[in-house]
Write a structure and sequence with these properties.
Blueprint: H1 14-34, H2 40-47, H3 51-57, H4 61-83, H5 89-105, H6 108-115, H7 119-128, H8 131-144, H9 154-170, H10 176-188
């Protein structure tokens, strides 16, 4: 569930909170399918609320898209925190990479948002949620175990993620990202 906005205002009434949650859920499906071409009217219809209700919670389509980016990063952060609990760091890293890629390969809105200048939001949210810290720790553990090359760091990984997103956006069959991720993971392994 999506919490009320952190604006310092009083909490939302129960009906307003339900509407907001329905809007975010509907928006995720609509943006996932249509990307940034999605219309607020379509989101309102899917959420079964009036378009005015959508605009009361999210004054612009950009604001709603930013909330979806935040929600996706909350899911990613949780995924990487859980990965850190696994005993084998490389297996945990690979599984988390595939799970996060699978999650975003079907979310056109998220992929477009990240590719089109939402990186400042993504970086801020990732920092707030400890995602950067979790990724850095996972890399450190993989490197300490000898399963990841030691000449790379978190910034390199972020660049590789951007490349993965670009492949997802430009793949004619929607599957080329799988080969890219396989090659990417192979490239992260230490030389034999």
């Amino acid at each position: 569930m999506t919490p009320p906005p952190a604006t310092g205002l009083k909490p939302l009434r129960a009906d307003a909170r339900r509407n907001r949650e329905a809007i975010v859920k509907a928006a995720r499906k609509v943006f996932s399918a249509q990307g940034q071409e999605a219309q607020m009217d379509d989101i309102a219809r899917r959420a079964k609320v009036g378009v005015g209700t959508v605009y009361r919670h999210f004054p612009t389509k950009e604001a709603l898209l930013e909330e979806l980016v935040r929600e996706s990063f909350r899911e990613l952060a949780q995924m990487w925190i859980e990965a850190l609990e696994r005993p084998d760091p490389w297996d945990a890293f690979v599984e988390a990479m595939w799970a996060s890629a699978e999650m975003h390969s079907v979310d056109k809105g998220f992929t477009e948002a990240i590719a089109e200048a939402k990186m400042a939001i993504a970086d801020q949210v990732a920092e707030e949620l400890g995602l950067h810290t979790s990724l850095a720790e996972m890399m450190r553990r993989c490197q300490a175990a000898g399963s990841m090359r030691t000449d790379i760091g978190p910034d390199d990984l972020q660049s590789l993620f951007c490349g993965l997103g670009a492949v997802m956006m430009r793949s004619p069959d929607g599957q080329a990202w799988r080969r890219y991720l396989t090659l990417m993971l192979d490239g992260l392994r230490p030389a034999p």
